[in-house]
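Listing S7. Sequence submitted for prediction.
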Amino acid sequence: MTLIAQIAASFGALLLGAWLFTNTVEWISYRFKLPSGFTGSFIAAVATALPETLVPIVAIIAGYREGVAVGAILGAPLMLSTVAMGIGGLSVLAAYLMGRRRRPVIKTSHFSLDARHFLVAYSLVLAVSLTDFKPAHFAVAAVLFLLYLVYVRRLLRTGDVVEQPSIELEMAHPVLAGLLAAVFLVGSVALLVAGAHGFADAVERLAERLGADPFTVSCLLAPIATELPEKLNSVIWYLKGRDDLALGNVTGAMVFQATFPVAVGLLFTSWRLGSRELATVTVPLAAMVLLYLYSRRNGLDWKVMSAVAVLYPVPFVLT
């Protein structure tokens, strides 16, 4: 299969998987009265974060150079805090221009919760990355695991539940509806993983032809492919006006990526970061500080979300 055909087929699988996943998650959350914050920032975020989470784990197990694993770990928060936010902002603007919104602003009740946990976690990551003292790496890894558990517990306490889903699976027998939802959920995740894997493989092959170094490929190109599920799911939810799910799908993934994969990296790699890698940690922190402070004064709108996208190439331009 040619690279163009592989990319097209993979993108088609991602689109279909994202559409099926968003509708199934909406129905499950509505059926079981789950908080929208928990649904968007945990269920949707972790499920669609599986492809990029597997990249560094596989790289470590398979014995690839550490640059591949570290690049994949640090590339995900960089991509989510900049490009994914920018795509979300443009999606909100598009929904406004299409007449689906009265104003191009984002209505979400738990952005502050996600932002605070990400800032705490990634500040710890930045601090511990300044030392080669391995016991400190182990200690911070344990703290990151605990921090994520605390975060999930707080998500369960968020208020609003998911509204009426777009697609109904109600049947005469609720068990049949539940089984059908489970099939849809597994099938959609399989499509997302397969699509992301195919896209990532095509990107890797292209990068090899260009002769790029492992860290650059992993940090820049691989996340572009593996983060597509979050972006597509969020675009669909933004267009439907379900901002808690849309934004939570990205910010929840950021909290996850800043804790679990980083903890794995701290435990199983040397985690010796140079100036470029440290800049890759600093940019997501700066982007989230900007969004958090702006949201506290003005709320989130499409302009500030789109603006942070320009920070994406900074670590590779300045280092």
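Caption to Listing S7: primary sequence and predicted structure tokens for the chain studied. Residues 265 and 273 are 11 Å apart (CA to CA). The radius of gyration is 19 Å.
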